[in-house]
Design a protein that fits this description.
Distance between the termini: 32 Å
Number of domains: 1
CATH class: Alpha Beta
CATH topology: Rossmann fold
CATH superfamily: Phosphoglycerate mutase-like
Radius of gyration: 16 Å
Structural class: alpha+beta
Strand content: 5-15%
Mean pLDDT: 83
CATH architecture: 3-Layer(aba) Sandwich
Low-confidence stretches: 1-22
């Protein structure tokens, strides 16, 4: 077996905006003082849609999804993808394992970008609450080593 860089880990929550800071996060992972808030991992800015369900949004905008639609006053999938790209550029330059804590939508985009996929393809990577994934390399090719782990649900089809 050929030596590989250690995998990069992506976990769920302890995001920059709102309530996730109060939930499990870097402290629960035993990172203590080594943990720091990364603003680029902030929750997707849903703008005027913040707090609304998909069903409520679709009543006004049939067929809307966060992946393909727009969030008035908020971010598009491409904008979230640009943030994910900036995080991944720093992660790729780090030595050893890196633990990332954020909300599911952001982590789904991050996984897509790790694999060089369009940000909207994050829709293909279901991620349950408190689940985690492991991003890694196989022969220098970015891969998902593990996804949606730590939950009872299957990863789900795209």
């Amino acid at each position: 077996m050929e030596p590989q860089r250690p995998p990069h880990r992506a976990h769920r929550p302890a995001a920059h905006r709102g309530g996730a800071r109060r939930g499990p996060g870097p402290g629960a992972a035993g990172l203590g003082e080594r943990a720091r808030i990364e603003p680029e991992l902030a929750e997707w800015d849903y703008g005027e849609y913040e707090g609304l369900t998909t069903e409520a949004i679709q009543r006004a905008s049939p067929g809307w999804t966060v992946w393909e639609g727009s969030c008035p006053g908020g971010e598009s999938a491409a904008q979230v993808g640009a943030r994910a790209d900036r995080v991944l550029a720093r992660v790729r330059g780090a030595e050893g394992d890196v633990a990332l804590f954020a909300h599911a939508h952001l982590l789904r985009v991050l996984a897509a970008r790790w694999l060089a996929l369009e940000p909207a393809l994050g829709r293909c990577f279901a991620l349950d609450t408190a689940a985690f994934g492991i991003l890694g390399l196989e022969h220098e090719t970015p891969v998902l080593r593990l996804w949606n782990a730590g939950t009872a649900g299957p990863p789900g089809p795209c």
